[in-house]
Amino acid sequence: MHRGKGMKFVGDSRVPAERKPNVPKDYSEYPGKTEAFWPNFLLKEWMVGAVFLIGYLILTVSHESPLERKADPTDAGYIPLPDWYFLFLYQLLKYKYAAGDYVLIGTIVIPGLAFGALLLAPWLDRSPERRPSRRPVATGLMLLALISITYLTWESVVTHDWNKAAQQGKIITSKVDKKDPGYEIFKGQSCIGCHGSELSGGSGPSLIGTGLKPEEIMKIARKGRGAMPANAFKGNDADLKKLATFISKQKK
């Protein structure tokens, strides 16, 4: 046999004869399909972001936020209402087993168990199945959470006194002359704690439009009436007269 007789050589066109470094082509070789990150792409991103930012700022200036009146810690009659995504927790605190002496259950224990179960969900059910019917633990927890949140949110909405909330949430311009010397005495005697900074009442009655004369108000301040104790006013007669005159001028 001659050397090489019967031998065959097989080649693979997918294997290049010359080894080239694995470096992607320059973007210039793909006209219209790509661009440089700096400055072209980044500049476009900045321009789009600036348009949205300016638009949002214009929106906030032209349409004021639906805020309520300023917080008044002396207003004991205020009914708070959280945003919609916290309504179910707000409703939970209305039940006896989650409020009062058991408030820790409603604020820590029940939410802690719920969010803890959410965090532990990947370990509580490690089944590779994708059908809900074959994953009873994960499906049951999800349905329980959805039903509970939906029910508590609905109960919070239907049991809330919306008419009263609308009235108390209005921003009311103060009609009280806070530059009056009588108001300074009113504030200095800590009357705000019971009657509010606007004299509209809190734990004590409203002092707006009482119809009382200064002499009658002075008598109440000295001798007391109802929940107001005797000798609640600690100042002199001159200051008491200024305060009584100031209160008697407050009209509805």
UniProtKB/TrEMBL annotation:
Membrane topology note: Multi-pass membrane protein
Principal location listed in the UniProt entry: membrane
InterPro entries: Cyt_b/b6_C, Cyt_b/b6_C_sf, Cyt_c-like_dom, Cyt_c-like_dom_sf, Cytb/b6-like_sf, Cytochrome_c550/c551-like, MenaQ_cyt_c_Rdtase_cyt_b/c-su
Binding site residues for heme c: C191, C194, H195
Record keyword Plastid present: no
GO cellular component: membrane
Keywords attached to this entry: Electron transport, Heme, Iron, Membrane, Metal-binding, Transmembrane, Transmembrane helix, Transport
Cell compartments where the protein resides: Membrane
Domain Cytochrome b/b6 C-terminal region profile: 27-154
UniProt domain Cytochrome c: residue ranges: 177-251
Transmembrane region(s): 102-124, 136-154
GO-annotated molecular function: electron transfer activity; heme binding; iron ion binding; oxidoreductase activity
Subunit structure: The main subunits of the menaquinol:cytochrome c complex are a Rieske-type iron-sulfur protein (QcrA), a cytochrome b (QcrB) and a cytochrome c (QcrC).
Family to which the UniProt record says this protein belongs: Belongs to the cytochrome b family.
Cited function: Component of the menaquinol:cytochrome c reductase complex.
Protein name: Menaquinol:cytochrome c reductase cytochrome c subunit
